[in-house]
Amino acid sequence: MQSFFPLRHSFIVGVALFEPVSSACREKEYPTSDGQCCPMCQEGTVVGRDCTAESGTHCVPCQTGTYMNQQNGLKRCLSCSTCGRGQKCTSTSDTVCDVLSGFFCKSLIDGTGCSTAEKHSVCKPGERIKQPGTSRHDTVCEACQPGSFSPDGVNCTLWTKCSENQITVQDGSLTADVVCSNGSRHRYFLSLPVVCFLILCFLIPLCSRGFVVI
């Protein structure tokens, strides 16, 4: 992989005296494996070679796909995060990931990048979308108000009102509309006593007079 600039541009951090360490290293210094203290490398670089009595710390730049965001005494840069979209990493900062459409960020990194994304919630039948999901917040759902319904969990619609010439076949619910039928609201029934009365009053006299009822 190519570095951000040639190695010949690597720089030497100021010379540090190569002497035994009697106490902890000072600020902006790091301890070496043999117990010496050397000047740290700057952001975007790591240690290529520890300091000696004749030279300071030799720092080398982070290669493409790696970064270092602080002064350090490390020998290897950090690997850049990989994501589908977002701001690409540089030698001094990691990738700032953004979420895909239909997802929201569940865990932010330093208030900007996203480390964990989750798919937007889907509202259930009988509910509506109160607030659509964004890249930072999940969908907010709420139940339909009485007298309305939602079969798909998107919007709530008021129940249909049957007209005077219709009858209600099925009552409405949170998930289904009222069902109306074209028919009279009034139904007439002939009870058994009424039928018997009609037979006695009309059919029997006709038969007695010689009429045949077909």
From TrEMBL:
Q: InterPro entries annotated for this entry?
A: TNFR/NGFR_Cys_rich_reg
The UniProt entry, under SUPFAM superfamilies, shows:
TNF receptor-like
**SMART domains given in the database record:** Ephrin_rec_like, TNFR
Q: Where is the TNFR-Cys domain?
A: 24-59, 61-97
Q: Which residues form the signal peptide?
A: 1-23
Q: List the disulfide bonds.
A: C38-C51, C41-C59, C62-C77
- Keyword Oxidoreductase carried by entry: no
The family database entries (Gene3D superfamilies) matched by this protein are listed as: Tumor Necrosis Factor Receptor, subunit A, domain 2 (2.10.50.10)
Transmembrane segments annotated in the record for this chain? 188-207
Q: Which GO terms describe its biological process?
A: defense response to Gram-negative bacterium; defense response to Gram-positive bacterium; negative regulation of alpha-beta T cell proliferation; positive regulation of cytokine production involved in immune response; positive regulation of T cell migration
Keywords (A to Z) from UniProt:
Disulfide bond, Membrane, Signal, Transmembrane, Transmembrane helix
GO cellular component annotations of the record: external side of plasma membrane
- Repeat (TNFR-Cys) positions are 24-59, 61-97
A single Pfam family, by name?
Answer: TNFR_c6
- Write the protein's name: TNFR-Cys domain-containing protein
| Upper classification of the organism | Eukaryota, Metazoa, Chordata, Craniata, Vertebrata
